[in-house]
Protein: 3-epi-6-deoxocathasterone 23-monooxygenase
Organism: Abeliophyllum distichum
Amino acid sequence: MAELNCSESWVLIGIVLVLSSVVWLLKKKGEEKKNGVPRGSSGWPFIGETLEFIACGYTSKPVTFMEKRKSLYGNVFKTHILGKAIIVSTDPDVNKAVLQNHGNVFIPCYPKSICELLGKSSILQMNGYVHKRVHALIGVFLKSPQLKDRITRDIEKTVRFSLSTWMDKSRHVYLQDETKKITFEILVRVLLSIGPGEDMDFLKREFEEFIKGLICLPIKLPGTRLYKSLQSKEKLLKMVSRIVEDRKMAMEKTEDKGFPNDVIDVLLRDAGESDGTHCLPLDFISGNIIEMMIPGEETVPTAMTVAVKFLTDNPTCPSPIGGGEHGTKETEGLFLQRICLDGLYVLAIHSKLWRKALKDVKIKDYLIPEGWCLLASFSSVHMDDINYENPCEFDPWRWDKTGAAVSSNTFTPFGGGQRLCPGLELSRLEISIFLHHLVTTCRWVAEKDEIVYFPTVRMKRKLPIIITPLQQ
């Protein structure tokens, strides 16, 4: 058979591309024929609207992608991003319904790199009885008065020591890095009862490598980001598994059933059913202990840093902290809580929940077809001026008007329903204690910096500051 010349080859390629596009469009149309599917656009063949979705993430207003489509199609719309047909919800009532689902309609649906790193036994990907049981065990422990008394002293001690090492006029402190050290140390103590030293340094170093792979190309070839992160996870698992096994053996040798020292104790003591069956496997405990370190590396330290940036950018902000005409402990506590909430509010600007529908489900008047991914955009709700006046501005007093209930449909920095973060009170406590000691014992000068929203919320330059003692 004669070889095709160059022009004929291009024609053939063009025909194949056109036919593929037609097949793709017909398939999408078939999926969307069901009555009630939200309006929207599937964008270009194959890539959909992914490029615009990512591009908006790098701007100062990452919710622009959502706002544009919301104005065209309403609060719930369809799109096609990251290789998936997706329905996006910016409706607080729809988001609440998804959060409160018990796993019989929606299941977690995360990017492949996250699934690879965390594994099938990850609490993030679990549903049903085991998830509910583990979530309850950890939540009860973290909210207990005994732990709060003990951890408050630990936080105070760690924060005071850290601030004392920062007070040097000759050097900059990169606040985002330093707050990570504080929160990671506190969280590891709660999870594993490990204090400062070689083990803590090892965990910190390997965990930083591990977490870099959460959002990356899902390629596991040697030298790739995912491959390196999986290697670090193996090192972490080896260390944490040894601690869990040693603790298990020690428990079997003693009858002491006092208050648990940490989360490992809590999970090891759980007997499952009343007859002692279905105890949590040791490898399950080890893997999820590592996963629970994530808030200490990302969420809480970023909220602390963003709060300090707010205070830096608003030096004339009237504050009852540290005395003054109305500077009582009660008013100071309320003001710190407002700042904490505003930091968490902005931190959630890139917050989304990914779920996959197991069957056709209708919420309000919207149909989510079986197999489709639903993206609940909490950030769009937070940045909607119908819910919050001047949503992009620092305003700690907004919470006097709106309230700050974590169960509110319009305020979800900690998730909600069965996925409500069990460590939310611990997070607030850490942020409040840190801000109290910083403001009442230090003065600081910060270099200009800006908030970056993609792939996660962070400071572009890690917020360099110079700190000196307040009384000098």
